[in-house]
Amino acid sequence: MAEIRAEEETSTISKTFLIKPKLKSKPRTLPQTPESKYWSSFKSTQIPNLVSSISSLSFSPSPPHSFAAAYSASVSLFSPLSLSDGDVSPSSTISSFSDVVSSLSFRSDGLLLAASDLSGLIQVFDVKTRTPLRRLRSHTRPVRFVKYPVFDKLHLLSGGDDAVVKFWDVAGENVVLDLMGHKDYVRCADCSPVSSDLFVTGSYDHTVKVWDVRVENSRSVLEVNHGKPVEDVIYLPSGGLIATAGGNSVKIWDLIGGGKMVHSMESHNKTVTSICVGRTRKEICGDKSMEDRILSVGLDGYMKVFDYGNMKVTHSMRFPAPLMSVSFSPDCKTRVIGTSNGIIFAGRRKGKENVESGGRGNVLGFESISEPERRILRPTYFRYFHRGQSEKPVEGDFLVMRNKKIKLAEHDKLLKKFRHKEALVSVLNKNNRENVVAVMEELVTRKKLLKCVSNLDTDELGLLLMFLSKNATMPRYSSLLMGLTKKVIETRAEDIRGSDALKGQIRNLKRSIEEELRIQHSLQEIQGIISPLLRIAGRR
Amino acid sequence: MMMRGGRSLVSSPPAFSNDAKKLLVCTSNTVSVFSTATGLQITSLEGHTALVTSVVVVPPSSPAAKVLCYCWTASLDGTIRYWDFSVPELMKTIDIRVPIFNMVIPSFLDIPAEDKGKHRDLFAYVFTEDTKETQEKTKALRRQIRKCNLSKSRLVGRLILGETKKPEVLTVSPSGKFFGIRNKCKLHVWKVPDQGSEHAAVRKITLHHTKKITVIAFHPTQRVIAAGDVTGRILTWRGFGNIAFDGNNGVEKQKLINIQEDKPGVRDNDDADSCTTWHWHSAEVNVLSFSSDGAYLYSGGKEGVLVVWQLDTGKKKFLPRIGSPLLYFIDSPDPTLSAISCADNQIHLLKMPSMGILKTISGIKTPCCYPEMCKGLGNGIAFDQTAGLVALRTENYCIQFYSLFDDRGISEVQVCERNHQPGDDVTVIVTAVALSVDGSLMSTSEVKLAEEGIGGLVCLKFWQAGSQNKEFSLSTIVYEPHRDAGISAVTFHPSGNMVVSSSFGGDFKIWRCNNDIIQSDQMHQNFSWTCHAVGSYKKRPMTAAAFSADGSVLAVAAETLITLWNPYKNVLLAVLGETLTPIVNLSFLGKSDNLAAASCGSNPQLSVWSMSKLSLSWSYKLRIEAVASAVDSSSFAALALLPESSNETTFKGRDGVILLYNATNPVPTAIWSVKKAMGGALGFLQVNPSSVEEVDGKTPEVLLAYMNGDHEYVVFDPYCKDAHEVSISQKEGLSALELKGQGGQYGYASIYGELPEFDEKRPETPWVPSFPSERPWETIFSGSSHNLPPLTKLCSAFLESLLEKRTAAVE
Q: Global pTM?
């Protein structure tokens, strides 16, 4: 029952133009892309006060995807749920290590955690009770990595400074295979996400080797040369590509194509220390799909997001310390970055936190509560007269739009009434310098600015002088404000002499002008140095 | 073929037809009939040979007669004509042989229903000029109010109702009983005699005021008259003429005399009961009108605000910010419709109680006057060659797009976000407007004047047209494009993606367009303009700029020199020079390799430069107002102002000539003399075959549009021989001018003799084509003597040429 009053279309000549500040030039760089918006939507929390550098970070594959951080001789477990509440204390800590912990790996069900340390010992812990269940000792030198295969729950992979890669049977605490081939420290490894028999290892001898446990003579299946000591290696989710990090570059290799390099990303300025696979939400025509990215961190303090589909760095983020390790949670809600000075930057995205718990709530709650019977509105009810006011238009309804009301600021209203001085004072009180300058420019076009200045009383003059002393030297406004300052001082000299507050303002003004003069001098000096160079360059 | 347009719609008050569906507007020699529903012109009444000054629609005698469409028109040509404007057809012509400034016909406003059987004569009261007795009488009282018997087609002899110095406006009361005029501080009211006899005595009263009265209005039913004065006061006399007009009855007279003691506000023992004053307007009142029921009074004036007064209480309602002085307010027979005419040549149709604007009949905007310091910045007129539009700047900081073929305003673009208040000091000026060749891009520049040296601002704006509608939207603003120096010229590259702006500050900038197509809801092209290159030549002020037809050469005038640049690489190609005074207009002549430069000042000059020879081909000493070149052919037209000393009688008040040249030939191919050439503009228009009717089975290739200083324009085919014959006035002027031209008495030829000889000399001069920047010094001397640079400059050029030769030899 919508009453529609059709009105003949009329227009008015009277237009209201608001006093707007001058437009600013747009930055040449593009505004935030949807992707960089996604990556900056991880709300960063710092977990400080962990001793020494964070050597390894690992997410539990099972929800709620708590993560473990290895630092010094201890391992701490954090819950991402408490993180979003601002609680940065670890939920539990394991400290039964004799040396610095080098690497961590969760088993695929998230119940066991393997940790290696520099004494050459590998320990397997029960995550809940934190008791060491198995102690694997065979490495003679520090162990640098330990890795659970993706599907295999019985074996472990480890390697270290003795250049040997060992394949363990965890239950029996014995080595199944000793894989020789690297000529220097083995630093990293990753297991294939598609096969439990394949894995890659990277070493300081610049090579990355692909191993298959089914091969008889324990020799590597494939070998690629990164060209720099390899710091980290990962399988990309397809299983056909690997990414290696070493030196300043991250390289992507095609394993199926025989170890051909696909791309080399060289946007870090210092050594890339760690890489992991992150996922971003991509919206194509409304439906959301996930796309994989490589997150890389380096000693230059940057985290870069690399789109290996388009071979492009899509986002880059700076942290105030050299970064040692990075990890991304399987539910795409958390990314953690460890630094060399004992701080973890944990970023957590807001989202539907309790999808599962919400489902459980349904069981407890009542399925349907009988709605109260709607009473028929009669003209005796008050609500009768409000009926239909918040009605949403149905498709097909003829909409009669009301003209949008123009919101006038206080200075706009005053200018409309030709109360020029009041307008100037009101905008000076508002503390928005762009608007102040806009109002001043409008007054200039009305040829009323100097009249306004001469009409200001002492307090208002103080306001104006304060504004001028703050902004007169800004290059954007100086062409107007310097001239105005001069006129103000000329015309109101007596008032300024009579008031101490105004004298103070003048002192401030003088200071800022002197500062500006200094800057101008130094700039001129620089110009003097550069201009002959430019002249010479122009001649070429 | 020939089209005229751009006439003033507001020279005299318009009139509504009886059904309020048509509006009759006096447009110079014709009366145009507009539809009030669409705002478009339906037809026009053509026949008068001079300005039509009044149009009076015959009111219906009965409700059934409402559909009848008859009207009387009066004109300065001394005729009164009777029309049926629905057909349209001329029914009757009355020639009274004296110019008529104004005409009212009060008698048919009386009820003529009673005279069923007998025919009654129809009388009109006309304001005429007494032409016969001019010699004997003093010029003071030459304008007379006379009575005219329309039925018998003659003036009523010897009956002169009044005489004034200047033509005044006759105002008739809606009841048809009275009419009146203002005369300085006085107001004369006549009572229309009841019977239709010719010599019935017309009685008159006079009301006095202390200020000059500007406008009067009669109440529809009561004996109330309102008058506005120059100070903005509105005076209302009630019960005027009670004594003079009705005072037959002795008893009543006695009574009136008794009342006479308390006549509040009435001056000088005038014949009125009371006089009240309202004052709201700050300047003179131009518009006064009572509503048809007599409850309201409409007033308006210079400030462009329509004020509605409630007569009993004096309460006011406003229709503000019309933006231009109001001239006339006309009520229609339909109570919901009325019209106001504004000084900027617009008629707004108002929906009455709410005073919303239903439609606007948009004439071409009148030229705006600017302060003296901003003169010579170009006339701000740009032609859209393909669409036949002209873009001109208006007083309210807009650019009006006016269709030359349809003779109506298309759209307006608000350039500065400001409301114009008539009468304010001009502080913001739109200085230049340029259109791209396809008309989809526009560039404007504006100047904000400083207040005592602070706060001045120059702005360059780039606009783009929407894909479907031709509405322009702002794409880029550049503040202070040349620091604080003003912009002298803005020109588009033929491809449309490049603009050059030259400034008096000594540099020019080339702006490039980056269009990134944003794929949002719909395809939306977003143009952004960035500075591509900056150039300057010896820090001289850059006064004009032009691109060649293929866009490969940019010519920028550095005062008296012409510099040629490669716009893509920003490399100086050559310098041509020099003229005696600064060049204000540069134009490449179509596809030919010639460049026309017009310079102004004490030694004005039109010179044509050959690009292939890099030298002057020929020149005339003419004051050039505008130059236009056709895109495809090598001919160009120049609008030249005639020197004031030229013979007045031969040109009959025409102060300019349009000269059509072929670029290679200094003898003009055609000449037309024109009026009001100052501030005029010329433009070639491409012919759209659908918009132009064929003449003798062939359509003209190209049309030339000339717009004079009052923005009246004419569009004609410059190559058609008939064009000379179309207008009598033009033909006369042409013959006169051609005679003069052959006599060799004006311009270049009069001073320096025949030009072809000069042309023949040209090929003889030695010339080295391989070094375009190296102009042999010998050629400096070839050319006309008045064009020789001073000796000091020649010396340096001579030495320079020697130096350059040597370096060339080394290389």
A: 0.70
